Amino acid sequence: MSLQWKGVFPAITTKFTAEGELDLEGFSANLKEQLAAGVDGIVLGGSLGEASVITTAEKELLVKTAISLAGNIPVVLNIAESVTTEAIRQAKLAAEWGAKGLMLLPPMRYKADDRETVTYFKAVAAATSLPVMIYNNPVDYKIEVTLDMFAELAEIPNIQAVKESSRDVTNVTRMINRFGDRFAILCGVDTIAMEELLLGANGWVAGLVCAFPRETVAIYRLTKAGRTEEATRIYRWFMPLLELDIHPKLVQYIKLAEAQAGIGTEFVRAPRLTLVGEERERILNVINTALAKRPQLPDYLSITIN
């Protein structure tokens, strides 16, 4: 099954009501904004999607709702499980629901060694025909997927991409030097996305796109079209917002940004709590300062990226 691992893939937030129930109306409204802005794929159930607190039944609803709206835009489901058998079950369910690809984290809770991690990835990939993107995030999940590990994974044809979230931009060059175009590389850290795109990354699994989809897609397309000065101008404006993506409370921060931008709400599911007091005022100041200076964008949707 083919999937073009390039472009902007929003890591969509999961929308909840004030009572903590799934808010499909709010989810759909935000998703329509993403699609209108020109995103290239959708990632559901990631860290930003509060994967640890949504049920399998809710994942099914989210996947099927996204597919009903997305048309030809691929919907990718994240798998973040502690047990290999459960990860395999989730992969099979994702295919049944109609997802076009998987994003796969290393085993959760247990810090697997290199051999265990590679075996886990291979077992899940072997259980499905869906294309797989490995999520390499040693900062938050304490397991680094090294180049030697990718060399072992290269023999599995449906392991096709990496969400590169090590926060080390040189990993893009190392991956390309060693593997050429065997693996598509998508930046997973908002604050270094333009740098990694310039170094050859194929795409961007983005966070602040949830609140600012047009600006995110504009940066991607302008950068890939060689219009670096225009892209840099937007990126510099965006940076204070992008820094919200690298905080432990990225979910609350980005949902607050969605609310201020008019395409979401602040509601999270416990044990997370919405922001209060000085912290909320500080983040609101970052968001509202940026909104007051929101840049005019060129006609980025007319740019064709090969």
Blueprint (SSEs and pairs):
Elements: E1 7-10, H1 24-37, E2 42-44, H2 56-70, E3 75-79, H3 84-97, E4 101-104, H4 114-126, E5 132-136, H5 138-141, H6 147-153, E6 159-164, H7 170-179, E7 184-187, H8 193-198, E8 203-206, H9 213-224, H10 228-242, H11 250-261, H12 277-292
Parallel strand pairs: 1-8, 2-3, 3-4, 4-5, 5-6, 6-7, 7-8
Helix pairs in contact: 1-2, 2-3, 3-4, 4-6, 9-10, 11-12
Explain this structure.
The active site is at 135 (proton donor/acceptor), 163 (schiff-base intermediate with substrate). By secondary structure, the protein is of the alpha/beta class. It has a single domain, classed as Aldolase class I (TIM Barrel), CATH 3.20.20.70. The protein has 12 helices and 8 strands. The protein has helices at 24-37, 56-70, 84-97, 114-126, 138-141, 147-153, 170-179, 193-198, 213-224, 228-242, 250-261, 277-292; strands at 7-10, 42-44, 75-79, 101-104, 132-136, 159-164, 184-187, 203-206. An 8-stranded parallel β-sheet has the order 1-8-7-6-5-4-3-2. Helix 1 runs parallel beside helix 2 (56-70) and helix 2 (56-70) runs parallel beside helix 3. The chain is globular, with a radius of gyration of 18 Å.
